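Your task
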Amino acid sequence: MVALHYPFTEAAVRSLHAGDAVSVGGIVRTGRDRFHKYFADGGALPCDFRDGALFHCGPVVVRDADGAWRVVAAGPTTSVRENPYEPDFIARTGVRLIIGKGGMDDRTLDACGRYGAVCLQAVGGAAVVAAKAVKRVLGVHFLDDFGAAEACWEFEMEDFRCVVAMDCHGKSLFKQVQEESLRRLEALFA
C-alpha cells in the first residue's frame, strides 16, 4: 500500500504503476458533470487544484445540529462522463489524482502521462464505507448554483483506499481488461 498525502507531488505520482494500491490522505475536492462543464466553458475555479485530487463524487451530506456538514455517503460516480473535459482539466490545473469509477479514454491516459497525473479507481457500491474516510468537510463551492450532488466539496480525508487504474506510463487496467476480454471472446468463437 502506497501512502499519498496532499499535496501530491509529481515525483510521487510518477512513481505509481497501474495496479498499485494506494491510501489517499489530506485535501480531496469533488467535481462532477456540472463542475467540469462550468470550467470548460471558462468558469473560474473556486480553489487551487495544483498537486491536488479531484474526486468524481456526488456525496450525500447533512448538517449536524451545530451547523457542520457531515458526509454520510461518498461513492465514486462514473468517470467516463468526464472524458470530454478531463484532459484539459489535467493540463490547465495541475491536478495529480483523478478518483472515480470505471475507465476513462486514451486522451485522459495521454494527459496523465504528459502532465504527471493518475486515475484512481475507488470501490463502487461502498459509498457509506468511503464516507468514513472523510474526516471533515473543509468547505463547499457552487452549492446554490449546482446543488449538493454537483457542488465542489472540499474534504479532509484519511486512508481513502483506491487502486491506480491509469498511470503516467501509458498503462490502463481498463484497457488490459478489455483486451483480455476480447481475446477470450475470440477464443470462444474460434
Notes: The beta strands are 2-5, 21-30, 53-55, 60-63, 69-73, 97-100, 118-121, 134-141, 152-166. The mean pLDDT is 96. The chain is about 30% helix and 30% strand.
